[in-house]
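Human: We require from you a protein record containing the residue sequence and its fold in token form, and nothing else.

Assistant:
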Amino acid sequence: MRASPSRDATVSGTVVDVSCKFGQGLSGADHRMCAEVCADKGIPLAILADDGTLYLPTSAAMPGDGQNARLKPFAEQRVTVSGKVFEAGGAKAIQIASIGKA
């Protein structure tokens, strides 16, 4: 199987707990502690871009490394992320090269 083509990109958005954001409608500063607990339990954190696109964080390592530890300090906060973006099956993923508060 061949890897999906990628492009370098910078994305601004909010780090969200995907389970609570989409399953429960919970988000924002009041939800930060819950998002951190969910991240510790293995619930994925992702970047919800300003345009509404959800970017799943991935790793270039094989096997892939989870990215929650990198994203947890930014849970429910706006960030700017740079890295390689991949698209497959209607989803977008980003291999994070750098992340910082927006």
Notes: Strands lie at 6-17, 45-49, 54-58, 78-88, 91-101.
